[in-house]
UniProtKB/TrEMBL annotation, chain A:
Any Gene Ontology biological process: cell wall organization
Gene designation per UniProt: pbpA
Stored SUPFAM superfamilies: beta-lactamase/transpeptidase-like
Molecular functions per Gene Ontology: penicillin binding; peptidoglycan L,D-transpeptidase activity
Keyword terms of this UniProt record: Signal
Domain Penicillin binding protein A dimerisation per the UniProt entry, residue ranges: 52-133
Organism: Actinacidiphila bryophytorum
GO CC aspect terms: plasma membrane
Record's keyword annotation contains ATP-binding: no
Residue ranges occupied by any Penicillin-binding protein transpeptidase domain in the UniProt entry: 155-480
Pfam families attached to this UniProt entry: PBP_dimer_2, Transpeptidase
Secretion signal, residue range per the UniProt entry: 1-23
Name of the protein in question: Penicillin-binding protein A
Highest rank taxon of the organism: Bacteria
From TrEMBL, chain B:
UniProt protein name: Uncharacterized FtsW-like protein
One GO-annotated biological process of the protein: cell division
Top-rank taxon, per record: Bacteria
A GO CC term attached to the entry: plasma membrane
Keywords on record: Cell shape, Membrane, Transmembrane, Transmembrane helix
Organism: Actinacidiphila bryophytorum
Stretches that traverse the bilayer: 33-50, 62-78, 90-109, 124-141, 150-170, 190-209, 230-247, 253-269, 274-292, 361-379, 391-415, 427-446
Amino acid sequence: MTRCIRRCAALCLVLLLALAVNAVRVTVVEAGSYARDPANRRIAIARYEHPRGGILVGGASVTGSQQTGGQLAYARTYRDGPLYAPVTGFASQTYGTSLLEGTEDGLLSGTSSQLASVPLWNEITRDRQRPGDVHTTIDAAAQKAAYDGLAGRRGAVAAVDPATGRILALVSSPSYDPGLLAGTGPAVTDQWQRLNDDPAQPMLDRAIRQTYPPGSTFKVVTAAAALESGAVADLDAPTDSPDPYRLPGTTWSLTNEGRGCEDASVYDAFRVSCNTVFAKLGADVGLTAMARQAEAFGFNDDGLRVPPAVARSNFDTRMSRDQVALSSIGQFDTTATPLQMAMVAAAVGNGGELMRPYLVDRVTNHGGAVVAHTRPERLHRAVSEATAGQLQELMEAVVSDGTGTNAAIPGAVVGGKTGTAQHGVGNKGTPYAWFISYAKPPGANRAAVAVAVVVEDAEAARADISGGGSAAPIARAVMQSVLAAPPRPYDQPVS
Amino acid sequence: MSATSADAPPPKAPPAAARPAAPPGSRRRGVELSLTVAAVLVSVYGYAEVGLATRGAVPRDAAGYGAGLALLAVLAHLAVRARAPYADPLLLPIAVLLNGFGLVLIYRLDLEPSLGPRAAPTQLVWSTLGITLFVLVVLALDDHRVLARYSYLGVTAALALMAAPIFFPAVNGAKIWIRVAGFSIQPGEFAKVLLAVFFAAYLSANRAALAYTGRQVFGLRRLQLPTGRVLGPVLAIWLLSVGLLVLERDLGTSLLFFGLFVVLLYVATGRTGWVAVGLLLSAAGAVAVGSLEPHVHSRVEDWLHPFASVHAGLGPGQLAQSLYAFGNGAVLGTGLGQGHSELIGFATKSDFILATAGEELGLVGLCALLALYALLVARGMRAGLALRDPFGRLLAVGLASILALQVFVIAGGVTDLIPLTGMAMPFLAQGGSSVVTNWIIVALLIRVSDSARRPPPALPEEDAP
């Protein structure tokens, strides 16, 4: 019997040892895969356990957190949600994140290892890292001016600082309050449904995610290609341009809205926006040079991140001559985001140098120490200094004595270009009104702000749509608000 | 033991010489008292830590809770000191620690409103009742052999207890509860002890007949079946109890009884054939029940594929949630009050209590708990080894096996080692009947270990067979 008891005791020991070994399996070996399982609610609980880090505009947070009283302790709140939605995106307990809330999520939720003040310390204590704050490059006054300028009409505004690439304004209209999506429950799912079903697409970030035919604003690129390729040497020399212009290889003739385009000089043709002159100019310059110039301004780039991804602006690289002609006046398959067209204006205003646009100036950890800082970076040299000077001459004439006089700012040098883009099947859709411009502060030879405005104004009668009428005043307001503010150093983090 | 030996007076003679003489000092009641006090302190510390971690303050009733637990523990100690002075000094402290810590875990889970009404106060009442019964058993029961006389009365009571829930409505798919005056009682828990006593008594009385008579099967001496006359009553009662449990769909307890029966049969007769027959029977039973009974079938499926519902897009089931909890605990645990085992939902405080321990105390805490259970079982087995009367030996082994099997069935279930069957983690889990029964088991172990360690009267020593 003694031997049997010993064996029985040994069996019990084996059973308990099996439990211990299995405990090692579930707590150590499999722990990683359990922790990564999206069905494991702990991921969400830990994520919302503490208030989320802030997204700051001009040193003031445009976001906050509030206690929900539920399992996911803190939900996102937004100050001026619709105003900043194209910048912040949303951080929802139900639908995930978008835009800056998405790209900077690791920093805002505190998981990023960048935030650790002492390496591995949090791994040992198992404390959750406090989240960091994301300081944007947005200029609150410019953002507000752009938003108020659109006044609820469908459209978008993008503004950049040409010298650095800092994005000063990103506005999309109509907008929405991302705070409506922050939490969980039927109220949130109803709002999500409503916003997604809305034909006005309020959640679409038009400034960087929507591409439009750029229309006549693309003539800046065509003029640049003509100047860079040597096809045009003297801006004031008459060109050999018929009016109407029959597109090469077709029977279709292009006309102009205004008069005086026949054999007009590039200077005059740009000032009054002659389609015939620039279509022929593009066709004469040729596809290769046109495409190279468009790409130098940032077209055909899939990889631009500000850090939210920017939609690809398109200039086709395989076209017939008539298609090149149409593309050169911003029609056919040529499309651009408002940010892309702001980059075109910025490169011209900045002496031909195109800076990489960015939205995050710096990231600070909970203690306020800077853990990441964006340095301005050159993206391309778009055009030579000399060509940039000539393009400035053209664009400044548009504002002083052309289609864009509505953008003039007393005391400042403003260059711009209007655009009215046809679209839709057979060009029957309501045209888009464009305006792109830059402004130099008094006495400066480089621009301090470049802006692109597009208004999809569906309400207005077709005749009233013109970049100069609808879009230029918005651009002026944005430029004025930037020029009014004292210049701020961009390369020194605010302590 | 080296840590605790400081509490005992230094032996004057070398230990080897002192053991048979057993001077009063080797009763080691001082060790028991200091360990018991330590167990109470650990529990109070855990109680305070829950408060500090969740509310930033020591709970207001921490002192009262500690004082109550200390009072009960000291009363139990005094009873042992008075009536079982030679009892194993580790049994009581381990029971107090497990019970105290179980209360801490339940108190912690009471902070989660999603888990229903508070359970810790009720559990404290049941623990008090359990310790009271412990004291009564230690005081009233002079000699464990008395129990053998009432074994048939006991088994009748056990069957009645097990049959009672049939007349009450099923709760969560199992007919194992009866409701009296607002309290839910699981009579099957009490039946465990009665059945262990009966098996021990019957097998010790008939072990010679069971071991040495009977027909040979296939001419093999080892595979020898006893005559029907001897085995009949045992098989009948075992079949009856297992049948009742299958009717009530409480498979955990059914498994436990079966295991207990096989273990005791093997220990009583020394025949490996019993183990083989037992394993065959259980394998056949498992296959039959697993394929016929949908309730059990789903448990087996869960065991094989704990994340099947996740992959099916239905969200994690209880077992998956339990595994997430263990995984989140990792080696050191999140700390008391800082895990999220409330996600398990139903039965978090009872069947799944180990998941909370695993998440908040980690692998380290789990191993500590398993070591405590292992010590408790080992001490029971040791008492069985040291005893001379077969009934006592079988009783000690039976009681220790009940604890070991119970721990294995439920801990293995919630960690996906074996299919999950509902059962209470001894002393830790919410459940009044269980905690009371476990205290009675410990009281009986105290009683048998006292007999085992009591210095023999001045008689010539006889060798155990």
